[in-house]
Structure formats: structure tokens, C-alpha cells
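pasting for the record
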Amino acid sequence: MPTHSSPTPVGRRLTWPWFLVVVVVYLAILQGLGALIGVDRSGGDSQFPTTESVIRNGVIPIGLSVLFGAAVVTWLGWWGSVLNYRVPVRCWVRFVPVSMLVVAVLAVNYPNLADQPLSLVLALIVMTMFVGIGEELMFRGIGVQVFKRAGLSEGKVALWSSVVFGVVHVSNAFGEGAQAIFQAVIVSTSGYFFYLCLRVGGTILLPMLVHGLWDFSLVSNSVGPDPKASPGMILPIALQVVLIILVIVKRRTIEPATLDRAAYRAVER
């Protein structure tokens, strides 16, 4: 899709190099605070063995990153553009958020969660909710707006916001080793799917919901002192492959046949 022209966007200007600086600060909050107050998990296989580990390693640093993202959006004056992104897509794209929501619900490791204290499960819900809100606010909110306001086409907006989203997850290499590189590639594709959720819903609330529930289903397999993976874990993996193939095959039919230019102008208001 070609680059489009639109009225001057509302709010302050943030160039992509400064956006990368914002992302670095965001990462410093997550990784730095997590390292400072987090519980050492190197002695076991569980990602979050106790309620305390969920709160100190997840809820607090991720919650503060949400506040940071909200502060940046407020300073920029972008809340209207970030909350509502009304750019049309074809009907088949609705399959992306619907399938992700269904698979996320089915893939939750309910038996493992049933064995955990209620406080741990509630803390996990809060943590993954913060993940969905914080990461979507930073990348499908601020990131998408940065690249869109730079005049890029929707295809390039989706690409670069997803690439930055994936590269950020390389920071997990500090705790997970070389496998974080592979994770970053997979996360980039997930970022593209979350972008499509934004397009389908017309509001960032939909990708926040999908992202939070998706992460909850994945993390539900690695909580508690002795976590046992559920066979349902195969579902998110299978869907990821299906969605990658689907988007590659139908990538040229994401945009409507007749582009509604007024919808693009509405995004900037």
C-alpha cells in the first residue's frame, strides 16, 4: 500500500530514534527493576514457583512499565490516536483475534493452576494483564503511531513495529540464553498478529485482551514449585504456524479492495 497523506497529527512529535530511546528506558524498568528486587529462580525448573516470585519478578516491574508507557502517551498527547485505530481490513482478518482468543482459553493449564494457591493464580492474572496492557501500549500504541506519523504505509508500520517488539525480547537472553534469539523471531510474528487484532477491533483494547490471555495460557504451564506442562500447549504452537502460513498466503488481501481514505484521516484526529 502506498504512503498516504493526512492532516497534521494531534500531539507532540516523536521520531523513531527517540522512540527507540523510550523503548530502552522501558526495558531498563523491566530488566533493571526485575534484577534488583526479583526472586532468584535459577534453582528450579519453574518460572514462577511462588506468589512472591510472581509479584516481585512480574507484577511490580511490569506494572511500573505500564505506568511509564501511560506517562509517555500522556506527555505526547496521543491518547485519542492510541486508543482508537480505525483502519479497515478485509473480513477474513477477523479470524486472527478470534482464533487466538479461542486457543488461549483452551490452552490454559487448568490442572496445574488448580494445584496452586489462589494468591498465586490471582497474581498471575494481574501480571499477564499488565503484560498485555504494557506491551500493547508501547508497541501497538506508541510504536504504531511513531511509524504511521512518519508517513509509512500500513504494511511498513506493521513490519517495523513488530520487528522492534521482537528485538526487545532478545533482552531475555540475559536469563534464558541463546534461545531468546529464536524467541525474538517468534515474538515478531506474534507482534504482527497483535497489530492485525488492532486493525480488526479498531481499538487497542482488543490486542491488550488477546495478548494478556495468550500470555496467561502460556505461563500457566510454568508456575508452581513443580509445574507440569499441559498437552494443550501444542495448540498455541499449531495456531502460530497456521497464522504465519495464512498471512503469507493472503498478505496482499489484508487491505480492503477499495481503500476508505477517510478512515486513515480519522485515525490522526
